[in-house]
Amino acid sequence: MATETQLHAIPLWLLREYLEELGGESMEEDRVLGQGWQASLEKMPPRQLGALRVGIVQITIEGEPDVLDILLPELEKKTMRAGA
Hints:
Elements: E1 2-8, H1 12-21, E2 25-28, E3 31-34, E4 37-49, E5 52-63, H2 65-79
Antiparallel strand pairs: 1-5, 2-3, 3-4, 4-5
């Protein structure tokens, strides 16, 4: 099973840190491996909103469905932003 999404205003390094806190180990700057899952991170071109530039990271997570059922809600809690 795989899921792919884009996250705005969260730097790649911080997203990688969140994945490490959830049990993953960085294999490279853009790849994190956990037990039963793996994530690929890709820095995308920033989005321009008037004078504001917002960074975007695309994350692809692959893994066993039962593992992702636990991992994804926990990651969502970490990436939740007020006002989003």
